[in-house]
Predict the 3D structure of the following.
Amino acid sequence: MEILTPGYKYQMIQLEEGVQGLNFLAPPQDMSPVDEYVWLSSQLQQVIDVLFDRTNYLHEVLPCVESRDALWYLAVASQAYEEGSYPQKEKSPRIKIIDPGHIYKIRQSEDNCLTITFVKRSGGAIRYRKEWSGVQTQEVLRVLIDATKYLQCIMCGISEEKVHNAEMAAQFLREALFRYEARAWRRKQEKLNRRNGTHNDAEHGRVWRTYPYSDVPFNSESIELRPSGEDGHILVQEE
């Protein structure tokens, strides 16, 4: 992920090939920092809605502990910006699902529409007639975390409450990102691939629930800053 304009313009790396922009509407020049916080956070919440819908889709295709947990953190992240300001389970009417789990359009204004295209590949759990390159959920989460840190900066010295709210939202997003990366790491350990995509939750479920993520050799701390490999997942140095 490349930051072009902090908080507003980003370039995301697509899996397999190319890049994809994710641009939020810039605020009017005379907007106050407090109003800008509301302006940008509402746009971030819409993208979180997209990730919630995509994660729910993936969980229905192949249920697993990690995606279930990620759904919870995405929900609370959306509410964290300002408690009660945004519905937790109702998708914004500005969001249009073009291809469930893979292509979404967000109507930012009468003249602007943001399209997010996720990678679509067949696997052991499902086969698609059409496949295409696109971004992974993790890349969008990195954008959201960086934009949320921008909100913390503009509120510094103005509203301790909003700084705290943005800080909590960023941490919840990191936890969601951690769950996605833990899922990828566990799949690698079980030697799963696109042809054999069945999770072994039946065998590991009790251990994972009793000692959640104790087997994963990394945590959520600054996870968005960790380097990633060609597969889009963070690099983990095995001992």
